[in-house]
Protein backbone atom coordinates (compact mmCIF):
# COMPACT_ATOMS: atom_id res chain seq x y z
CA UNK A 1 0.00 0.00 0.00
CA UNK A 2 1.48 3.35 -1.06
CA UNK A 3 0.61 6.35 1.06
CA UNK A 4 -0.31 9.86 -0.11
CA UNK A 5 3.17 11.26 0.43
CA UNK A 6 5.65 10.44 -2.31
CA UNK A 7 8.93 10.66 -0.39
CA UNK A 8 9.83 9.42 3.07
CA UNK A 9 13.08 10.90 4.31
CA UNK A 10 14.83 9.52 7.39
CA UNK A 11 17.57 11.70 8.89
CA UNK A 12 19.68 10.13 11.61
CA UNK A 13 23.21 10.15 12.86
CA UNK A 14 23.05 6.45 13.80
CA UNK A 15 21.29 4.01 11.47
CA UNK A 16 23.15 0.73 11.74
CA UNK A 17 22.27 -1.85 14.36
CA UNK A 18 25.96 -2.39 15.13
CA UNK A 19 26.45 1.23 16.20
CA UNK A 20 24.29 1.49 19.33
CA UNK A 21 20.70 1.08 20.50
CA UNK A 22 19.58 4.14 18.52
CA UNK A 23 21.04 2.65 15.34
CA UNK A 24 19.30 -0.63 16.10
CA UNK A 25 15.88 1.02 16.42
CA UNK A 26 16.34 3.12 13.29
CA UNK A 27 17.46 0.12 11.24
CA UNK A 28 14.32 -1.77 12.31
CA UNK A 29 12.06 1.18 11.43
CA UNK A 30 13.71 1.56 8.04
CA UNK A 31 13.26 -2.16 7.34
CA UNK A 32 9.53 -1.85 8.06
CA UNK A 33 8.83 1.52 6.43
CA UNK A 34 11.11 1.09 3.43
CA UNK A 35 8.46 -0.08 0.99
CA UNK A 36 5.51 2.06 2.07
CA UNK A 37 6.33 5.09 -0.10
CA UNK A 38 7.26 5.78 -3.72
CA UNK A 39 10.71 6.82 -2.54
CA UNK A 40 12.32 6.15 0.84
CA UNK A 41 15.63 7.87 1.47
CA UNK A 42 17.91 7.36 4.42
CA UNK A 43 20.33 10.24 4.99
CA UNK A 44 23.23 9.72 7.38
CA UNK A 45 26.85 10.77 7.81
CA UNK A 46 29.44 8.39 6.39
CA UNK A 47 30.49 7.18 9.83
CA UNK A 48 30.34 3.47 9.05
CA UNK A 49 30.85 2.88 5.36
CA UNK A 50 31.38 -0.87 5.62
CA UNK A 51 28.64 -1.72 8.05
CA UNK A 52 26.27 -4.64 7.77
CA UNK A 53 23.32 -2.38 6.97
CA UNK A 54 20.66 -4.54 5.37
CA UNK A 55 20.16 -3.35 1.79
CA UNK A 56 16.54 -2.83 0.92
CA UNK A 57 15.81 -2.30 -2.75
CA UNK A 58 13.21 0.36 -2.01
CA UNK A 59 15.52 2.41 0.25
CA UNK A 60 18.13 4.80 -1.10
CA UNK A 61 20.93 5.31 1.42
CA UNK A 62 22.55 8.71 0.92
CA UNK A 63 25.65 9.44 2.98
CA UNK A 64 27.66 12.62 3.19
CA UNK A 65 31.20 13.43 4.23
CA UNK A 66 31.88 15.71 7.16
CA UNK A 67 34.81 16.86 9.26
CA UNK A 68 35.66 14.09 11.73
CA UNK A 69 37.96 14.36 14.71
CA UNK A 70 39.17 12.04 17.43
CA UNK A 71 40.19 14.99 19.56
CA UNK A 72 38.56 15.41 22.94
CA UNK A 73 39.07 19.15 22.75
CA UNK A 74 35.92 21.28 22.61
CA UNK A 75 36.61 23.26 19.44
CA UNK A 76 37.41 20.32 17.12
CA UNK A 77 34.43 18.38 18.49
CA UNK A 78 32.10 21.35 18.00
CA UNK A 79 33.40 21.81 14.43
CA UNK A 80 32.79 18.13 13.74
CA UNK A 81 29.20 18.34 14.99
CA UNK A 82 28.56 21.55 13.06
CA UNK A 83 30.00 20.00 9.89
CA UNK A 84 27.73 16.98 10.31
CA UNK A 85 24.63 19.12 10.81
CA UNK A 86 25.45 21.17 7.72
CA UNK A 87 25.48 17.91 5.72
CA UNK A 88 21.91 17.21 6.83
CA UNK A 89 20.91 20.84 6.25
CA UNK A 90 22.23 20.89 2.66
CA UNK A 91 20.31 17.73 1.82
CA UNK A 92 17.10 19.13 3.32
CA UNK A 93 17.30 22.45 1.49
CA UNK A 94 17.77 20.74 -1.89
CA UNK A 95 15.43 17.76 -1.56
CA UNK A 96 12.28 18.38 0.47
CA UNK A 97 8.90 19.55 -0.76
CA UNK A 98 5.22 19.26 0.18
CA UNK A 99 5.16 15.57 -0.81
CA UNK A 100 7.95 14.73 1.67
CA UNK A 101 7.69 13.31 5.17
CA UNK A 102 10.85 14.01 7.18
CA UNK A 103 11.34 11.55 10.04
CA UNK A 104 13.96 12.28 12.72
CA UNK A 105 14.86 11.52 16.29
CA UNK A 106 16.02 13.87 19.00
CA UNK A 107 19.71 13.50 18.23
CA UNK A 108 21.78 15.30 17.24
CA UNK A 109 20.10 18.26 18.99
CA UNK A 110 21.21 20.94 16.53
CA UNK A 111 19.44 19.01 13.76
CA UNK A 112 16.08 19.77 15.38
CA UNK A 113 16.76 23.51 15.16
CA UNK A 114 17.86 23.26 11.53
CA UNK A 115 14.78 21.28 10.54
CA UNK A 116 12.52 23.79 12.29
CA UNK A 117 14.19 26.59 10.29
CA UNK A 118 13.86 24.76 6.96
CA UNK A 119 10.23 23.90 7.77
CA UNK A 120 9.42 27.64 7.92
CA UNK A 121 10.45 27.98 4.25
CA UNK A 122 9.55 24.57 2.81
CA UNK A 123 6.22 22.86 3.26
CA UNK A 124 6.79 19.28 4.42
CA UNK A 125 5.51 16.99 7.15
CA UNK A 126 7.92 16.41 10.03
CA UNK A 127 7.68 13.45 12.40
CA UNK A 128 9.89 13.56 15.48
CA UNK A 129 10.50 10.29 17.31
CA UNK A 130 11.28 10.77 20.99
CA UNK A 131 12.34 7.49 22.57
CA UNK A 132 15.25 8.34 24.82
CA UNK A 133 13.81 10.82 27.28
CA UNK A 134 14.13 9.78 30.89
CA UNK A 135 10.99 10.63 32.94
CA UNK A 136 13.00 11.18 36.11
CA UNK A 137 14.58 14.22 34.42
CA UNK A 138 11.13 15.79 34.12
CA UNK A 139 10.35 15.13 37.78
CA UNK A 140 13.58 16.70 39.03
CA UNK A 141 13.10 19.74 36.78
CA UNK A 142 9.52 20.25 37.96
CA UNK A 143 7.89 19.70 34.54
What would your notes on this structure say?
- By secondary structure, the protein is an alpha/beta fold.
- The chain is built from four helices and five strands, in the order E-H-E-E-H-E-H-E-H.
Number of separate helices? 4
Q: Could you state the CATH homologous superfamily?
A: Glycogen Phosphorylase B
**Proportion in helices:** 25-40%
SSE pattern, N- to C-terminal: EHEEHEHEH
How many domains would you count in the coordinates? 1
CATH class label: Alpha Beta
Summary of the model, kept short:
The mean pLDDT is 77. The chain has one domain (7-141): 3-Layer(aba) Sandwich (Rossmann fold), CATH 3.40.50.
Q: What descriptors fit this protein?
A:
143 residues, alpha/beta, Rossmann fold, 19% strand, 5-stranded parallel β-sheet
List the helices and strands and how they pair.
Blueprint: E1 7-11, H1 21-33, E2 39-45, E3 59-64, H2 74-95, E4 100-104, H3 109-121, E5 125-128, H4 135-141
Parallel strand pairs: 1-2, 1-4, 2-3, 4-5
Amino acid sequence: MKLDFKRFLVLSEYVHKEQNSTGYYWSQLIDILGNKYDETILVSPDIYKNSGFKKIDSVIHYTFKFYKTKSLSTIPRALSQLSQQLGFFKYLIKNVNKKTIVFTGTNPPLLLILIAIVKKFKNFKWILLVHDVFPENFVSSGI
